Amino acid sequence: MAQRFSGLHIPELTLFLFLAGIPGLLMAQFEQKLSLNLSGGYFNTIGKTGWDPGYVPGPDDMEPTLMPNFTGGPSVTAGIQYNFSRHFSLEFQAGYSYALSWYYDYSDDDSEPFNYLYYEIYNDTVDYTVIASGENEMDMFNFHLGIAPRYYFRPGSLLNPYLFAGISLNITDDYFQNNEKAAYQALGRLEEYEENPELVSWFEWHTGIGMIAGAGVEFALNDYLGLIVQTGYHFIPLKEEAFFEGHKHADFHALQLHLGARISFLKSKEL
What we know:
With about 270 residues, this protein is mostly beta strands. The protein folds into 2 domains: about 1-30, no CATH class; about 30-105 and about 140-180 and about 195-270, Porin (Beta Barrel), CATH 2.40.160. Helices cover about 10% and strands about 50% of the residues. The protein has helices at about 10-30, 180-185, 195-200; strands at about 5, 10, 30-45, 50, 65, 75-85, 90-100, 120, 130-135, 135-150, 160-175, 205-220, 225-235, 250-265. The chain has an 8-stranded antiparallel barrel. Strands 1-2 form a two-stranded antiparallel sheet. It has a two-stranded antiparallel sheet with strand order 4-5. The longest helix is centred in the first third of the chain and has 20 residues, at about 10-30. About 25% of the residues are buried. Residues about 1-10 and about 15-30 have low confidence and may be disordered.
């Protein structure tokens, strides 16, 4: 007599469990293993905007730091993501951020706001009539290569939140456009121009290791395409010798907000 278990023959029970497990086996077998991540948005540097040089009389008379006073600008990233499981992934990414301008209000309580990079040219040193004025300009870029583990909390759901954190190799530099010198030249008075090295030479080309971290949510359109909303924080410790005589030194701190897509293109069975 065949041995029975809960009203089913053991061979029948074995076949039933095998058939019931097929969907799970197929899901594991056909999980997306590689994806292309593309995103873009806005970034802005943050931090302490001024420092006390020690020779000014009041607490409001501060000199500007460099990095925190850059205005925001565009930021883009592209990466290849390998999915070890439905929860855990590793992304290799490249990113570029560009700050469009720089502004630090150098006015006091009794004057209208004006940028630290503002200049005036006078007709002479007697009556000081202004014959030309304007602002010098400065922008900044950062390019990075990074690696960041990523953890998904609700794989398979329509909305799948995630966290990520990793390290980056960065190239950072600024560009100073000397409009004051150009104005003296346009007036035919270039010989009167006296360049202030501390103003013109703020920062030199810098390479260094940084940290990236953030959180996001992925909206799954189908098995191959997901839309993402992501916010992140980027930190780069900057060498003090990269700044002119150490003045205006401040590390790179930036926040970013990105929209993008994750495109999956390789399933585990194809590996």
